[in-house]
Design brief:
The chain has helices spanning 2-19, 24-50, 65-78, 86-101, 128-154. The protein has 5 helices and no strands. The chain has 157 residues and is mainly alpha-helical.
């Protein structure tokens, strides 16, 4: 429910900015944070739910999307998934972009880093409607992976 809630919360805020463009500047930060949290929790869920079958342990301690993505890929490979298609590559690209912009989930939560230095954020060029569409596609990808892995796990020895 949490991963769904973060995504739905972001979607609702995006809709609010489309209805009232004056809200964009204040809502962009929680929107991006919620979408990032949705990605993190989705990866953690998939790893925790399906990884143990192929020797990959749940990872609830890391916040780094790049690490979580690599662990998720190990899960897919553990189930024999070798032919990475356009969907896999597109999902990897979205996760990599979020990992680059906000590697440890600080950038859109705090105005400064742990040392008190301002975190430079480029948000004025962000198209929130397009971001919401990309997140819906990523949600569909994660849902498809969930169904695919569930089927493979259920068919196991």
């Amino acid at each position: 429910m949490m991963m769904t809630g973060y995504k739905e919360g972001a979607d609702l805020m995006v809709k609010r900015t489309l209805d009232d463009s004056r809200k964009r500047d204040s809502l962009v930060f929680p929107i991006v944070f919620n979408y990032r949290q949705f990605i993190e929790l989705s990866l953690k869920y998939l790893i925790a739910t399906y990884g143990h079958t192929v020797g990959i342990q749940a990872n609830w301690k890391d916040h780094e999307l790049a690490i979580l993505w690599q662990e998720f890929i190990k899960v897919l490979r553990g189930y024999g998934h070798r032919d990475f298609n356009e969907g896999d590559q597109a999902a990897a690209q979205v996760v990599a972009e979020f990992a680059k912009v906000d590697p440890q989930s600080f950038s859109y939560r705090y105005p400064v880093d742990k040392k008190g230095r301002p975190i430079p954020l480029r948000h004025d060029e962000l198209n929130l409607a397009q971001l919401a569409a990309v997140m819906t596609a990523l949600d569909n990808y994660f849902s498809g992976c969930d169904g695919y892995l569930d089927h493979l796990q259920g068919a196991g020895p």
